[in-house]
Amino acid sequence: MNIFIDNKSGLPIYDQIYSQIKSQIISGALQEDELLPSIRNLAKDLHISVITTKRAYDELENEGFIYIVPAKGCFVAPKNTELLREENLKKIEKHMEDIIQLAATCNLSREEIIEMFKYIMEEKNNERN
Fold it and tell me: CA 10, CA 8: separation in Å to the nearest integer?
């Protein structure tokens, strides 16, 4: 598991850890039931507070991405397909909001945006065939 802390980032350190582990779980880089580093070991490796690491793990557990077995460790939770779908839907909505803002700066109409999307979808379908 690779975690990189960017001290120049505006994001809190616990959020950086949380986001990176979550991303690795969603992408499949971290497998179901895989043992994660202990809270203490991860804190030591990253040279941060145990409290910061615990907060990231707590959030991951609360959202169902990991589970903690007392005296055994922290593990990647079995993938909940509905949870993963919801995460991806949130990402799509964010991208769509970005598209709308960018389109507004170019004075694109709704129809033009839809037409662009249809064209790109068609091109992707042709690439697969």
Answer: 6
Task: List the chain pLDDT tens, one digit each, 129 residues.
Answer: 889 999 898 899 999 999 999 989 888 899 999 999 999 999 999 999 999 999 999 999 998 899 999 999 999 998 776 777 787 889 899 999 999 999 999 999 999 999 999 999 999 888 877
DSSP string, the chain: ------TTSSS-HHHHHHHHHHHHHHHTSS-TTPBPPPHHHHHHHHT--HHHHHHHHHHHHHTTSEEEETTTEEEEPPP-HHHHHHHHHHHHHHHHHHHHHHHHHTT--HHHHHHHHHHHHHHHHHHH-
Taking the C-alpha atoms of residue 31 and residue 110, their distance in angstroms, rounded to an integer, is 41
Structural contact between residues 20 and 56, judged by C-beta atoms closer than 8 angstroms: no
To 5 degrees, how large is the angle CA 62–CA 19–CA 17?
Answer: 90
Residues 6+ apart with CB under 8 A from 99: 113
